[in-house]
Amino acid sequence: MRISIFGLGYVGCVSIGCLAKNGHTVVGVDVQEQKVELINNGVPTIVEKDIDEIIRTEHAAGKISATTDYLKAVTTTETSIICVGTPSSETGQLNLDYLFRTAEQIGEAIAQKNEFHTVVIRSTVMPGTNERVAAIIAEHSGKKKNEAFAVVSNPEFLREGSAVSDYYNPAITVIGSDHQPSIEKISSLYKDIKGEIIITEIKVAELIKYVNNSFHALKITFANEVGNICKALNIDSHPLMELFCKDTHLNISPAYFKPGFAYGGSCLPKDLKGLATLAHDHYLTSPLLQSIHHSNEHQKQVAFDMIAKTGKKKICFIGLSFKEGTDDLRYSPSVDLAEKLIGKGYTLSIYDKNVHLSKLVGANKAFINHHLPHLSELVCDEPARAICQSDVVLINHRNFDLAAHRELLKDKIVIDLVRVKSDVAQLNYQGICW
Ligand SMILES: NC(=O)c1ccc[n+]([C@@H]2O[C@H](COP(=O)([O-])OP(=O)(O)OC[C@H]3O[C@@H](n4cnc5c(N)ncnc54)[C@H](O)[C@@H]3O)[C@@H](O)[C@H]2O)c1
Predict the structure, then answer these.
(1) Is the pLDDT of residue 354 over 90?
(2) Mean pLDDT of 203-210
(3) Which pLDDT score is estimated for 93?
(4) Which residues form ligand 1's pocket by a CB distance below 6 Å?
(5) What's the total number of domains in the chain?
(6) Looking at the annotation, which residues are catalytic?
(7) What is the DSSP string of 21-77?
(8) For position 313, what pLDDT does the model report?
């Protein structure tokens, strides 16, 4: 394929070399003449393992060149890959000036072309940018999206220091576009590269990189706070974290990564508080550990606000225990929510298939007696009865069979905290964070 690459920085330089090595003819475009000159002399614009050899060889083979002439670069290629910088502005928002300027230039060039042109956004951009880039290109080319050109979102996941190896060994390649032939064309660029190619919605393709990098930052910070506590206790943090990583069931795994309601129960809140307090007792600051509880409390507020926004006062709870399959009500976020709603004058009806008041004992009973002393007046032994008494139905158990109660739910608002497994089509339905 004949490809033009806009931006000859870290991402662009690696892309130009690796695409050429995979058999494509690539022309790099940059506004900095010095970078263009380097590439035209077979020299990379960055310091990175293996890149010198790749650029030298591919340049010698005539597969790599560079220019500042963006018109020529676009008109002589069938695909342009945008790798320009998208730095943070002073206020934290993304500065997309370079990207939009590039879109204008590509648009000007497409105005002069008769063949279809595919534009790939490889830079890290916020959701909605694909649409804006398409609008800019349409404006500057005078041509229509998906007739004369298409825009594909294809985020880059490489890390500096191992960029070439990361380019050839990504965990996944993510592609989002509303133009099927361009999806196929760009997928073909990665056919010799390891890792699954995942075609997804454009906005998912745009946001995923931010979610990935934020999680990586979270991991580093978490490990550092744990390390600081370990050091204060004279424990070597490295073997401890190695042990932590050996748990691939709950720690390094998809477990818990489902957006939904707050955590609760007798262990997570207690043990998190224990670790944060241990840090505090050793005069350590652990802002991340301290913030987890606040974020969790906020999620309860999100659920409360959704209910308040309906303007309805009669609320049915499907599920009250801290998770499905148990009758443990201790520190259940649903109990907190119920308590708050009662305090604000709401009327509740509650169904939980595992909670039988006569069978509650010990700390579980004491907890509920303290927090919801009138629970017996609110609990229904049939879900239908609880639903009938309400205007809003709050789902807290994923396995609840909504479909079996479809008729009763017709004129109710369903608020789902757990992403229920049932089909929710035709219901007046809202998910807490989807
Ligand atoms: N550096 C990384 O490790 C990395 C990894 C993955 C994704 N990304 C993302 O990729 C994008 C590029 O990052 P980078 O580190 O390669 O940036 P960089 O700053 O190293 O390079 C960007 C290049 O774009 C050029 N440029 C600006 N406007 C241009 C225009 N109109 N036409 C042609 N060239 C133009 C600049 O002169 C510069 O050489 C960013 O969105 C970044 O967030 C970076």
Answers:
(1) no
(2) 98
(3) 87
(4) 6-12, 29-32, 35, 83-86, 98, 101-102, 105, 123-124, 156, 158-160
(5) 2
(6) 267
(7) HTT-EEEEE-S-HHHHHHHHTT--SS--TTHHHHHHHHHHTT-EEEES-HHHHHHT-
(8) 97
